[in-house]
């Protein structure tokens, strides 16, 4: 990977930068953790947390508690036939959402990093990754993370490099 792309990714929001440090540079865990801690107080993470209500929910929905085993189980049961996920499945949607699938995959990956995951979560994550490699869909933008369409995206570049790294490891 060229240093120009890596430098560009590192010159970004803490929500992207800590993942770049962890996944692409091999930075020491202390450096990764220090950058990750900034997410709650700087940039996108701070903006997202500012939208959280007093009960810890966003838009009347998501909640993140300490024990995630029940959440992981629900996610595994909610995987759709095409391999992805859709937050509208409860309302009858049978097609996966690119955005929801990315969110679930990142959550499952964090679960694997933090708790070791499970054989079932690893299989579900692999099916979801395959869905992303085979499908593209437009989605609703809740708030802009980058400079807009047609402009370089650090977030998408990081995701693409992570997919390429995953693919090279297969």
What does this entry show, briefly?
The chain is mainly α. 56% of the residues lie in helices and 0% in strands.
Describe this structure in words.
- With 170 residues, the chain is mainly alpha-helical.
- It has a domain at 67-139.
- The chain has 8 helices and no strands.
- It has helices spanning 3-10, 14-25, 29-37, 43-50, 69-77, 98-115, 119-134, 154-168.
- α2 (14-25) runs antiparallel to α3 (29-37), α2 packs parallel to α8 and α6 (98-115) runs antiparallel to α7 (119-134).
- The longest helix has 18 residues, at 98-115.
- It starts with a helix and ends with a helix.
Task: List strands and helices in order, with pairings.
Elements lengths: L2 H8 L3 H12 L3 H9 L5 H8 L18 H9 L20 H18 L3 H16 L19 H15 L2
Helix pairs in contact: 2-3, 2-8, 6-7
Strand percentage: under 5%
Order of helices and strands: HHHHHHHH
**Proportion in helices:** 55-70%
Q: How many H/I helical runs?
A: 8
What structural category arises from helix and sheet content?
Answer: mainly alpha
3D shape: globular
Largest sheet: none
Q: What is the typical, i.e. mean, pLDDT? A: 83
Spans where pLDDT lies below 50 across 5 or more residues: none
Radius of gyration: 16 Å
Termini distance?
Answer: 18 Å
How many β-strands, per DSSP?
Answer: 0
Can you give keywords for this protein?
single chain; 170 residues; mainly alpha; 0% strand; globular
